[in-house]
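Morning. Coffee machine broken again, so started the prediction first thing and wrote up yesterday's gels while waiting. Chain of 221 residues, entered below exactly as on the submission form.
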Amino acid sequence: MAADLRRAGVQRLNVSLDSLNPETFATITRGGELNQALDGIAAAEEAGFPPVKINMVVMRGINDGEVLEFAALTLRKPCTVRFIECMPTRMEPGWKSLCVTGSEVLEQIARRYPLEPLDHGNTAGPARNFKIVGAAGTIGVITPISNEFCESCNRIRVTASGVAKGCLFTGEGVDLKPYLRCDDDKLKEVLYQIMWKKPSRHKLLTVGSAHAPFAMAQIGG
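Came back before lunch.
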């Protein structure tokens, strides 16, 4: 679908790719085929998209042995690989045992490759960005568990059904579709309200706190 998306005006793509091993990929995605994902990334390049952002959720004992392989993707291609700490979207028991911290990821990469930090601009997202010296692409770590960034988060998410959320872990959301039929000022006002109501911190590590389980495939955006 890459060419159609490009013609429709989509400007950039993020791709969830949690393993480069076909069997591990199929297990994580419950039956997905790695070659289809890789073919999609290649199609995006052919369609003229800027280099894709590849998101890898690092899970201990599942795919944490692939960190260096993912980091190496940036050596020759100007893509961005972002390593994300495992979050309890489904509230699975024992989820903390899966979490590999961003500092662990960086330490593992630094033992193999020299890393240099990149400037974090005012409009940058929650990722801390680095570059393997001499590499074409960049590396990022997103640390919602070990280094909570809620207070400085400048992102909102619009789901595939048009609902805007100030945070992944809030059950609330605003359906933007009616406002898309209004003037731009009304839409801007609604988006500003969502930003002002963003929580100052999450409660994922607070004893007794809970959120409604959800699948990222349901959220999209």
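Residues 153-205 form one domain. Going to sketch it on the whiteboard this afternoon.
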